[in-house]
Specification:
It is a single chain. Helix content is about 50%, strand content about 10%. It contains 15 helices and 5 strands. The longest helix is centred in the middle third of the chain and has 21 residues. The radius of gyration is 23 Å and the shape is elongated. The N terminus is likely disordered.
Amino acid sequence: MRPYSLATVDPRTTETGGLQAYEPFDRLWPLLDRLPRKQHRLAQALIETPETFAFGSVREIAGKLEINGATIVRFARSLGYDGYQGLQAAVRRAYLQHAGLQAPRDEHALRGGVVAAVRAQHLSNLQQVHEQLLATDLDAIRDALTGARRILVCADGAAALVGLLLVRLLPHVGLRGELVPSAGVDRVIALRDAGPKDVLVAIGLWLTFRGTVQALRQAKEAGVRTIGITGSATSAIARYADHLIVAPAQGAAVSFSVIATAAAVEVLAATIVAASPDAAQSIEQSLHDRYLEDDLLEPFGER
């Protein structure tokens, strides 16, 4: 962390300055010059890395900052919360709202019916991504993909599921994609000969993992065209993407959802099909014929 004094920090000049309008940051600034030394360190960590508090446990924060758990609880109470969980919920809500995402549903909504709560979140995410897609130049993205020598796909965490979906869908529209590891050495090797004739698709949910951004940066430096699919327009992915699709990834009970991100990938595939429907139909027919020749399909109606 940067060694500045919180007592003299102007929230408008910090990297997370936009958060000061949200709880608990609006409570924190007036207290900065009155906090004990160890709570100062907690406040600094909260300002600089709010995601640590939004998603980390007391034990993780205590170990990272070399502060005992009791100090963290006292810090939460000094901000008006019953304990760490109350502070964490507020930080998570602020973090999501600042990123332009829907705030998480409370436990009362889930008690009213998990299926209904998840369905409502899915519908909200899908509505937002479809609005984004209507405003996106999908033809330009389609042309980039269909004209690429190589289609490279990079995604970390749960977003890797959607990356795999994209790679599996591409052969159905006459293209071929390959997954790029986000780890340092393997990423460097995979992108070693990438260039302007290639496309890299980077996929993230509402947390942005450093490896995905580093792959994007390396690709941009090599002249690779880039497409970003991310849960928030404020994601670092947006800074390096020539074409951007924002697919909200907020979950209901589980903190994230891949539904809107998967929908965006399916729309990209459909856009390619719509441009060459006869070719796509021919591909599907040839695949189906091969399934039959290799006896891969289980007959309908048999037990």
